[in-house]
Specification:
Elements: E1 8-12, H1 16-22, H2 27-44, E2 52-59, H3 67-90, E3 94-98, H4 106-119, E4 126-133, H5 135-151, H6 162-166, E5 179-182, E6 201-204, H7 214-226
Parallel strand pairs: 1-2, 1-5, 2-4, 3-4, 5-6
Bound molecules: 3-methylbut-3-enyl trihydrogen diphosphate (2 copies) and magnesium ion.
């Protein structure tokens, strides 16, 4: 839920492959252009009132893709964020990676840890990058961690509330997304933020992610402000 002036936007950045193929380029060219868009959106988001941005970069199902595309995406992301680090720090952006990082290549994992520690004390935009992330995996991981605490005598099943369960999620500490955007026209959530998006306002856009811009985000925010969120009330 939106609290105070917090505004959390989550994005399924889809359509990189189609963008590239439409130009006769290899799919990876779409991923590269898509990363550039991430850079521009991160820069624009705070000025549009966004306080947290959670972006889906690689899903637990994306391992089904050819190995060279998988490796390209995983390395591209951390390489780009590492390159932007001085700029991100000067913009006070705190970067956190959510997902099952145990399965990431060791060099990617090491870069993730550097990125997180270099930005840990930043108090501006919260940028959460979902890398090897799946909503079901996140819920399962939280359930296992809670069960382990119960077995160790640190928790008991009757303690479990929604807030307590939140504290076991990879995205813990972040208010639930107010807005979930999916680009590229598919009308599905593809295992993104299943627990957290319970009351998010959904936006399905036809625009491919590499064509997304600050102006696209601004128009989503404008429509969001005109929607009436009831949270089950009347
Ligand atoms: C989104 O673009 C990026 C990832 C899923 C990593 P896609 O690569 O899925 O692009 P399309 O859907 O094939 O166009
Ligand atoms: C969702 O896009 C995952 C990311 C954007 C990282 P996909 O392209 O993997 O989703 P499907 O396969 O169309 O459902
Ligand atoms: Mg896709």
């Amino acid at each position: 839920m939106t609290t105070d002036n917090q505004l959390h936007v989550a994005i399924v950045m889809d359509g990189n492959g189609r963008w590239a193929v439409a130009r006769g380029l290899p799919r990876v060219a779409g991923h590269r252009q898509g990363a550039q868009v991430v850079h521009d959106i991160v820069a624009a988001a705070p000025g549009l009132g966004v306080t947290a941005l959670t972006i889906f970069a690689f899903s637990t199902e994306n391992w089904k893709r050819p190995a060279d595309e998988v490796s390209y995406i995983l390395h591209l992301f951390v390489a780009m964020v590492t390159k932007w680090l001085p700029e991100l720090v000067s913009q006070h952006v705190r970067v956190r990676v959510i997902g099952d990082r145990g399965a990431l290549p060791p060099d990617v994992r090491a870069s993730v840890e550097t990125i997180e520690s270099r930005t840990a004390s930043c108090d501006g935009l919260h940028l959460n990058v979902a890398l090897n992330y799946g909503g079901r995996a996140e819920i399962l991981h939280a359930a296992q961690a809670f069960a382990a605490d119960c077995a160790a005598g640190k928790a008991s099943p009757s303690d479990l509330t929604e807030d307590r369960f939140d504290s076991y999620l990879w995205l813990r500490g972040e208010p639930a997304p107010d807005i979930v955007i999916r680009t590229a026209g598919e009308l599905r959530v593809s295992n993104f933020l299943l627990w957290e998006m319970a009351y998010a306002e959904l936006f399905f856009l036809d625009v491919l992610w590499p064509d997304f811009s600050a102006a696209t985000l601004e128009s989503v925010l404008q429509e969001f402000r005109s929607r009436h969120r009831r949270f089950g009330g009347s």
